[in-house]
Every structure is written in structure tokens, then in C-alpha cells.
Amino acid sequence: MPTVRDRVLDAYETLLIDHGGASVTLDAVVAAAGVSKGGLLYHFASKEALATGLLDRLRERSAADAEAIRNAPDGAVAYYVRTSAPGGASPGGLTRTYLAVLRLADSTTTGQAVRDALAKVDADGYAALLDELGDPVLAWLAQLVGDGLYLRTLTGTPMPPDMTVDDLLDRMRQYAPRRQ
């Protein structure tokens, strides 16, 4: 069963994704989470503290995902590309948290902290890809492919007809084989 803190953060994520940062209030989070105002304020004393809590969650989930990338049986590139493709969200909630945090990026009060957290997520993924590939250019190219697929996921744009993620990975492996 999720803790009150997790329920609050889950509700905050949903509200951010559905309505954007400017329209989310503490009262809306209380209602969506099904907690008392005191329960919310015990964990997050302000809207800024709530945003900080979400950024902490993003960093935690990013670190766990980077570990999953490194330990993926099919390799880091395959994991990164598959979880970036439409329908392939990362386990552990990173994709959802990342999307919610994106909705905070233009905030004047939390904007820089959000950009810093997103840069950390990017660095975690890149480092895991670099561990496998050993070449910074190939690691960055693999990350860009994953980022492009992730953008398609966010916008609902499908893969090109008659192409699958496996087709993409097969071609990528020709140019970026796993280090032994």
C-alpha cells in the first residue's frame, strides 16, 4: 500500500500531466490524493516543497532506471530504446514522473531546479549507455534515438509503418555493438 507521501506525489504527477503546473493547487492535490490538508502539509509544507519532492522522486527513479539499464539482459541500448518507444514505458514510474516534471520546467520558482534534475536524468542514461558502448559518440547517438522515440510516445506519434523497435535495434547493433 502506498504511503501518504507517495499518494500525494502520485496525485501531484497526475494533476501536472493533466492540467499543467500553473493550475495545480495544494487543495487540488489534497482532493486528488484523498488526504487531509494536514497530511499534505506534514510531508510538503508548500507548493515549492511539493515540487522539490517530485524532483527528488525523479532523481531516485532515474538512478534506479540507470541501474536497470546497466543490468538489462538484452543490453543497455536495447533497454533504453525499448523503454523509450511508444508503449514501452520504463518500469518503476520514471516515464510518468519525467512527464510530470516537464510540466514544471517553465515555472519561474522551480524552473532551474527542474532543468537541473532533467539534466541529471539525461546524464544517468548517457553514463549507462557509455558503459556498454565505450564510445561517447555512439552512446550519445543511442540516447538521441531513445529521446526521439520518447518524444513520439509523449505526442502519440506511431512508429513508421512496417518498422518495429526490433528493426531499429538490429540496425543500431550493426553500428554500435555491445562491448564484450
Characterise the protein shown here:
It is a single chain. The chain is mainly α and 180 residues long. It folds into 2 domains: 1-45, Arc Repressor Mutant, subunit A, CATH 1.10.10.60; 56-175. 71% of the residues lie in helices and 0% in strands. Helix 5 runs parallel beside helix 8 and helix 7 (111-133) packs across helix 8. The longest helix has 25 residues, at 47-71. The chain starts with a helix and ends in a 5-residue tail after the last helix. The mean pLDDT is 88. This is TetR/AcrR family transcriptional regulator. Residues 2-62 form the HTH tetR-type domain. It holds the Pfam family TetR_N. InterPro entries: Homeodomain-like_sf (IPR009057), HTH-type_TetR-like_transc_reg (IPR050109), HTH_TetR (IPR001647).
Task: Offer a few descriptive terms.
2 domains, 9 helices, 180 residues, Arc Repressor Mutant, subunit A, single chain, transcription regulation, transcription, mainly alpha, HTH_TetR, 71% helix, Homeodomain-like_sf, 0% strand
Secondary structure layout:
Elements: H1 4-19, H2 26-33, H3 37-43, H4 47-71, H5 76-84, H6 94-102, H7 111-133, H8 136-155, H9 165-175
Helix pairs in contact: 1-2, 1-6, 4-5, 4-6, 4-7, 5-8, 7-8
